[in-house]
Design brief:
Elements: H1 5-24, H2 32-39, E1 45-51, E2 54-66, E3 69-79, H3 88-102, E4 107-113, H4 117-125, E5 129-130, E6 151-157
Parallel strand pairs: 3-4
Antiparallel strand pairs: 1-2, 2-3, 4-6, 5-6
């Protein structure tokens, strides 16, 4: 089912409300046109959560192939601020895990800003770890020699 303009606007409003300040202060910068194109790309899929007809949370994801197999890439998980810390984010991640296992994906992958400390803690508590594709990944026994970046790529194995 295609998203209608009203749904797209509601998704964008939640995203912008939660993320504008983080993007503005990041190396990515605030580029609404680019983010809209990414978020609503033809291969994007959504899980939407409504309360009394109002969108309060969503997860945007795609089925992708990476170097180590098929993955669900979580492009955005957003919960309206008044509903945060209510278990919705956890339920959405668990939903992605269920989808991933049903479609035999090897992992869930996502990108998180280091400045978003609550999201970093949330994903760590959900079992995510720094992915080998992340600029901050350092194999055991090696010394990090890369440039400092303001984000990490995290993943959670589904096997």
């Amino acid at each position: 089912m295609e998203l209608d303009e009203h749904q797209r606007k509601n998704i964008w409003d939640i995203f912008e409300g939660n993320m504008h300040h983080l993007y503005k202060g990041s190396s990515f910068g605030w580029d609404p046109q680019s983010k809209i194109a990414e978020l609503f790309a033809p291969l994007s899929r959504f899980i939407l959560v409504h309360v009394q007809g109002r969108l309060i949370a969503f997860v945007a994801f795609r089925f992708e192939y990476e170097h180590d197999g098929n993955t669900i890439y979580c492009y955005d998980l957003q919960v309206l601020s008044s509903y945060q810390r209510s278990g919705l984010g956890r339920a959405l991640v668990l939903g992605l895990e269920t989808l991933g296992r049903a479609w035999e994906m090897v992992k869930i992958t996502l990108t998180v800003f280091k400045a978003n400390a609550s999201a970093c803690r949330f994903y760590e508590n959900m079992g995510f770890q720094i992915d080998v594709a992340s600029p901050g990944y350092v194999p055991i026994g090696e010394v990090w020699r890369g440039n400092q970046v303001d984000y990490e790529i995290l993943s959670k194995n589904l096997n």
